[in-house]
Amino acid sequence: MHGNFVWYELMTTDTKAAEAFYTNVVGWSARDASMPGIEYTLFYAGDRQVAGLMTMPDGALDMKVPPAWLGYVAVDDVDAAAAKIAAEGGNVHRAPDDIPGVGRFAIVTDPHGAAFALFKGTGEAPPLDQMAPGNTGWHELMAGDLDTAFEFYSKLFGWTKDQAMDMGEMGVYQIFASGGKQIGGMMTKPKDIPAPYWLYYFNVEALDAAIERTKSGGGQIVLEPMEVPGGAWIVQCTDPQGALFALVAPKR
């Protein structure tokens, strides 16, 4: 599993509102995780746990960090990966720690400041159909600099370059693979975007209906629907609390 995204977590200011929004928009169901000492909600696609939801920690609010999705990437050794990130110019924001009965994790940023998490579970993860409804079908990095960012992640996770698309003035969009399978893309962020970030695309069955659910639920469209190579359709949105997310569907 090393180098694959295995979990997604929304840290937000209003978990009840976020739960209602995403269960409606993406079609997830939600259940309390019953974790001692912490309120944590699990999102399910069918009978599969696919994401988590929690209130933002006080420290993040004090630092004016906005609500956001965080992706967890599987590694063979969390401590070694965290040390490698620090050595390669990234930062470890939460040192490696254990979640009893679940696994070990750390929260980090790449050298340009894009946040993600490292994870190693206590058991074997079940095989995942990346394109199944409710799963996360694509992972996209708006990088501080494409070339140095790719080198960083390639050293860390073993990601390899796949197709590269020339986006004209926007630069090159580099698709990357883990274990030979395309899992995402990255490009140098436009100058008007203040900071690098990871964006996660949740699979829905049809895009237009999901857009209407997003709007009626209080979300906003920040990048209008577009068709991408391969025939899928995407849209980028913010939820009512301001967290950025995206949707991908095989049809409008």
Detailed description of the structure:
Residues 4-121, 135-250 form the VOC domain. This is VOC family protein. InterPro entries: Anthracycline_SecMetBiosynth, Glyas_Bleomycin-R_OHBP_Dase, Glyas_Fos-R_dOase_dom, VOC_core. The protein is an alpha+beta fold and 252 residues long. It has a domain at 5-121: 2,3-Dihydroxybiphenyl 1,2-Dioxygenase, domain 1 (Roll). Helix content is 19%, strand content 44%. The protein has helices at 15-25, 58-62, 78-87, 146-157, 207-216; strands spanning 5-12, 29-32, 41-45, 48-55, 68-74, 91-99, 103-109, 115-121, 136-143, 160-166, 172-178, 181-188, 197-203, 220-227, 233-238, 244-249. The protein has an 8-stranded mixed beta sheet with strand order 2-3-4-1-5-8-7-6, with helices on one face. Strands 10-11-12-9-13-16-15-14 form an 8-stranded mixed beta sheet, covered by helices on one side. Strand 15 and strand 16 form a beta hairpin. The two termini are 32 Å apart.
Write the layout of secondary structure elements.
Layout: E1 5-12, H1 15-25, E2 29-32, E3 41-45, E4 48-55, H2 58-62, E5 68-74, H3 78-87, E6 91-99, E7 103-109, E8 115-121, E9 136-143, H4 146-157, E10 160-166, E11 172-178, E12 181-188, E13 197-203, H5 207-216, E14 220-227, E15 233-238, E16 244-249
Parallel strand pairs: 1-4, 5-8, 9-12, 13-16
Antiparallel strand pairs: 1-5, 2-3, 3-4, 6-7, 7-8, 9-13, 10-11, 11-12, 14-15, 15-16
Number of helices: 5
**Total beta strands:** 16
CATH architectural label of the domain at 5-121: Roll
Q: What is the H/E order?
A: EHEEEHEHEEEEHEEEEHEEE
Largest sheet: number of strands, sense, barrel closure: 8 strands, mixed
> How are the strands of the biggest sheet laid out side by side?
2-3-4-1-5-8-7-6
Structural class: alpha+beta
Terminal CA distance: 32 Å
What is the fold-level CATH name, i.e. the topology of the domain at 5-121?
Answer: 2,3-Dihydroxybiphenyl 1,2-Dioxygenase, domain 1
> Uncertain regions: pLDDT < 50 for 5+ in a row?
none
- Please give the share of residues in helix: 10-25%
